[in-house]
């Protein structure tokens, strides 16, 4: 077992395409970088996720003739929101944000890499059955509390925090280190769902590592 706390900082999708000017820009998304960089120093364990789609991914509106970004379509695994093309694997838009101190990450989880399945969650793909391997990794490392920050509050952050709880981890969202897309009240719904699932909320300045 690695010495140090049993907390892990999980930095979700802080990527060029989710920042202002990006293909799927999250309003004020770049505001998360400074608090995340300050947090990174206070964790012995940092894991980063990257949205990482093949060209023509099923979550892209352009893959569904006649559909527009932010429409919903029924897929075999359930309803899927359609997005502008974003985070195509290997492109500059999929790169981690410049200035994010991601060199401290011990693991990078890439998700949404199957052409026909999306993955908002860092734990389970949108078919809700295919694991990414993150839960097993954290368990093997003895990491029990997941502190979640990044983009976007109402999609990848929320699904990740909810799945962390479902997998038996403690989960805490850092309120000043997340920003949302907010489609039709999705941020408020996500915050309520997380609270109901036992996800905690803290400000980055209040985080104290476990001894
Ligand atoms: C995300 C929409 C599509 C996210 C990723 O990182 O929250 N949202 N792909
Ligand atoms: Zn995506």
From TrEMBL:
EC number(s) recorded for this UniProt protein: 3.5.1.19
Organism: Methylobacterium adhaesivum
Keyword Hydrolase: yes
Name of the protein described by the UniProt record: nicotinamidase
Family: Belongs to the isochorismatase family.
Enzyme class of the recorded protein, top EC level: hydrolase
Biological or metabolic pathway of the protein: Cofactor biosynthesis; nicotinate biosynthesis; nicotinate from nicotinamide: step 1/1
Gene behind the chain: pncA
SUPFAM superfamilies: Isochorismatase-like hydrolases
Segments forming domain Isochorismatase-like: 8-201
InterPro entries assigned: Isochorismatase-like_dom, Isochorismatase-like_sf, Isochorismatase_Nicotinamidase
Keyword annotations of the record: Hydrolase, Metal-binding, Pyridine nucleotide biosynthesis
UniProt GO molecular function: nicotinamidase activity
Pfam families the UniProt entry points to: Isochorismatase (PF00857)
Source lineage: Bacteria, Pseudomonadati, Pseudomonadota, Alphaproteobacteria, Hyphomicrobiales
CDD domains: nicotinamidase
